[in-house]
């Protein structure tokens, strides 16, 4: 049986679930960690991140996937950066708040080409950049380098603000259901 919740009530319905998730964390019911299986799944993306953004913070759906909270294909790589002038020519399209299309710290995206070695084909990655506003993060080791993932609670909180978008709401539903909330 499916229950339909109108788009207008998403955020109201999710606030208690988010509170329950935070309580489970505080009580030590679970911890976030990156599994070897997920690292294998995202090996190419992580190699790209290691080579281009090893000092930055991974966020968004790929970060939630790395800690096992969601399991879906990611359309881009979201990165938090402190030096917002590192790149010029950020491309900006409507994203975030359905009314304004904006997220306060979003800089825009850039398309990157990456080839991991001579015998490998070139891959194209769309990287969406956000200003790092002192995000909390979890570190994990990948091929001798410590990579950083934004703390999942911060990402979930951000997704709650964008939950009028079906993709974000569905991610939140999956995460809360995973923990029986």
In short:
This protein has 181 residues and is an alpha/beta fold.
> How do the strands of the widest beta sheet line up side by side?
3-4-2-1-6-5
Gyration radius, in Å: 17 Å
Instruction: Measure the end-to-end span.
Output: 18 Å
Mean pLDDT: 84
Q: Structural class, judged by helices and strands?
A: alpha/beta
Low-pLDDT sequence parts: 1-6, 96-102
- Count of helical segments? 6
Can you tell me about this structure?
The chain has helices spanning 10-26, 36-41, 43-53, 60-66, 152-161, 166-178, and strands spanning 57-59, 77-81, 106-114, 123-131, 137-142, 145-150. By secondary structure, it is an alpha/beta fold. A six-stranded mixed β-sheet has the order 3-4-2-1-6-5. A hairpin with an 8-residue loop joins strand 3 and strand 4 (123-131). The longest helix has 17 residues, at 10-26. The radius of gyration is 17 Å and the shape is globular.
Brief descriptors of the model:
6 strands; 35% helix; 6 helices; single chain; disordered N terminus; 6-stranded mixed sheet; 181 residues; alpha/beta
């Amino acid at each position: 049986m499916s229950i339909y919740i109108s788009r207008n009530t998403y955020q109201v319905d999710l606030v208690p679930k988010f509170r329950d998730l935070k309580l489970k964390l505080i009580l030590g019911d679970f911890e976030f960690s990156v599994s070897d299986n997920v690292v294998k799944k995202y090996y190419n993306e992580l190699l790209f991140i290691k080579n281009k953004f090893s000092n930055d913070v991974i966020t968004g759906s790929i970060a939630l996937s790395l800690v096992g909270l969601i399991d879906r294909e990611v359309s881009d790589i979201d990165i938090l950066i402190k030096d917002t002038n590192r790149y010029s020519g950020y491309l900006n399209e409507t994203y975030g708040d359905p009314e304004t299309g904006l997220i306060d710290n979003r800089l825009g995206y850039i398309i990157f080409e990456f080839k991991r070695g001579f015998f490998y084909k070139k891959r194209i990655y769309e990287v969406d950049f956000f200003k790092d506003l002192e995000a909390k993060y979890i570190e994990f080791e990948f091929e001798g380098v410590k990579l950083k993932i934004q703390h999942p609670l911060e990402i979930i909180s951000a997704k709650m603000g964008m939950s009028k978008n079906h993709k974000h709401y569905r991610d939140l539903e999956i995460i809360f259901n995973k923990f029986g909330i």
